[in-house]
Amino acid sequence: MGLARRSALTAVGVVALLTSSAVVTLAAGSAADDCPDVAIVGARGSTDTVTTTNRGMGTNADYFADSLERELTARYGGALAVQSLAVAHSPTSIGVLTPTRSELTALADPARRDAAMERYRTGNLATYTRSVDQGMTSAVEQMTALHTRCAGTTFVLAGYSQGAMALHGALARLADDGRTALLSRVAATVLVADGDRVAQTAATRRGTAAATAQGVRTALQPGGRDVAATPPVLDLCLARDLACDFDAARLLHRGVSPSLSALKEASRIHTGTGYRPLLLQAAQEIATSPLLAPTSTPTTTAPTTTAVPTATPPAGSAALAAFRAARADSAAGRGPLDVVVVGDSVTEGRDVGKGNRWVDVLLRLLRDRYQPAGVPGGEGYVPAYYAAGGMADRFTFGGTPTLGSQYGFGMRANHMPSGVGNSMATTFTGTSFELHYASSRNTGTVTVSVDGGPGTPVSTTGSDWTPRDGGSWTSPPLPRGTHTVTLTNTSGRTVLVEGISVYDGDEAAGVRLWEAGHSGWQAEDYAHRPTAPQHGQAVAAAAPHLVVVALGYNDVVAGFSAADFRGYLTTTIAHLLGPDAGPDPSVLVVGYPPRTDVPAAAWDAYLEAMAGVAAEQGHAFADLSDLPQFGMSGDGVHPTATGHAQLAAALDAYLAAG
Fold it and tell me: Is 532 helix (H, G, I), strand (E, B) or coil?
């Protein structure tokens, strides 16, 4: 028997929530024997719609509820009955927090700033928080009614954005009302992007925001009330989130254009999928609470996993949390699963060709598992050129290309000079594409033409003299089929074109892979080349959920000690994670089967170094060194097509087990 879940969100309740702002009580029926063991109270934010699939909780709270239910099933089987309660309120769009250009101009003017800020507080902020009291009342009434009828029910609360503010207030109101018995049945509360967060909150902090971060209402109306230390509260906040890390100086006082840019970034962080890994980790942590253990079931049942020889993640490891969260989203069509692979000539596919590389095979295997129905999926990242022998470049060049090892995934870009005739073109099958480039004050304009149509100028000029990686431009939707894109330098400056990403129905959901290898390169290159930090910018721009690092072959043959390699690998991973605006992606370090032209002991020492880096930094490590009858080519370094298929299958099994 599986976990029993009695959702209180009926079809009538959904219609009521969609059509009315009135408080709707969604508690279960009145029979005493209908009491749930666990009640998950979910409160949505302004960007969440009410649907039957998210039970009226909104996407984030529902994702947490699903994750917690899975964790409880793994621990206790069908011993618990879980009920979901959706807080009834009508959150206002977070867009009201974005000032108009005239308001920003006033905020940027010292003479008008105080008056403009007061209008912002009484107008924008008051509108944004209008529904918080409504949601707080709904949560308190539903919890009180259920507790009165079912004193043994344990509560877990989860709210996002204005929903977090509602539950923040609900805890305070229950304390003020002396509901100590009810509060003692609250196992934990998860507040995601809480607009009422106070600096140095007593809650357990999760995410990248500083301890001093404040919510939007707390920052603009000082004197906000913190949550109590008990019952336990997890506060999830990402750095620069518009709702929970609101900094007026950063967002509103930097002048009109910079402010618009900062506000756009803050809103993107708030509404993105960056909280998913944190929600999954919160569910895993809360599932261990003694309050959630069944009173009549003596022992717990450990979750079963698929055994994968030489490639099994540590038991209970959170190293692949971001990957696990995204693969579930991808399979359900809720979002993409983005994977970046950083490596050398093996990653690029020397001598085997595109389609036979392990990265290509792995993409197909991951799509077999996690691709939503009806989404074909594009070929992914196409670099300006391949550095590996036996790999045919996908672009043809006009004029005088300058192919340099500085920018883009795997640092492979065309430093397209100015002048007539300098262009590059490729043909692909799909529904859209994304152009990738590096920008600086010295870079110019590239004109993009599709299928010989009129050109669209794309400026790559940036604000700094030092080139910054991660610039992009996305094409409009294209009819599914074969298309040719031509990129032409139409300015008097160099354009740093890195490549394109090809989409085929997977613009918003599905498995996508970004190959970032460079033939002949060592971990030392990715660690210490002058543009190594910019490579991290390129990777961060892809917002990956999993970064696979497969290096070492070229370091070991160069004679670097295992200690040196460990340092290079550590620095490489730091570059890949450093610029990421949200929570770090999962990182998987891969140890290949040994190359045959170096002593076995040397490679064993490298494998130990990889395992050490992974353990030290909380990453996953897949030791593939013992793959039986591995398909290695005659040079003893590069796998055959069979070897690539073996690597892909082993990694697919590893990730499935993880």
Answer: helix
DSSP class of residue 422 equals -
pLDDT tens digits along 245-276? 988 767 654 444 444 567 777 788 888 878 88
Q: What is the DSSP letter of 632?
A: B
Which residue, 640, 639, 638, 643, is CA-closest to 628? 643
The Cα-based distances of 392 to 219, 345, 382, 426, 641 in angstroms read 55, 13, 11, 12, 16
Q: Apex CA 580: angle with CA 574 and CA 582, to 5°?
A: 130
Residues of the chain with pLDDT > 70: what percent? 84
Place of tokens 């009145």: 30
E strands present in 419-573: 423-430, 432-439, 445-450, 456-459, 468-474, 481-489, 495-503, 510-517, 546-549
> Which of the two residues, 316 and 329, has the higher pLDDT score?
329
CA atoms of 102 and 112, how far apart (whole Å): 12
| % the chain with pLDDT above 90 | 55
Q: Which helix (H) or strand (E) holds 38?
A: strand 38-43
Q: Which two tokens stand for residue 156?
A: 């877990």
DSSP-derived pairing of the beta strands 4-7 and 81-86: parallel
Count of beta carbons in the 10 Å neighbourhood of residue 257:
11
Over the stretch 614-644, which tens digit does the pLDDT of each residue have? Answer: 999 999 999 999 998 899 998 999 999 999 9
Token look-up 């370091």 returns 555
Residue keyed to tokens 């920003």: 104
Q: How far is Cα 456 from Cα 447, in angstroms, rounded to an integer?
A: 5
Q: Torsions phi, psi of 249, nearest 5?
A: -65, -40
Do the beta carbons of residue 85 and residue 305 sit within 8 Å?
Answer: no
149-173: b (≥16 Cβ within 10 Å) or e: bbeebbbbbbbbbbbbbbbbbbbbe
Look at residue 383 and give its three-state secondary structure.
strand
Polymer length of the chain: 658
Q: Put residue 543 in one of left, alpha, beta given phi > 0 → left and psi -120 to 50 → alpha.
A: left
Token output for 443: 């870079």
DSSP secondary structure letter of residue 638: S
d(CA 452, CA 445): 18
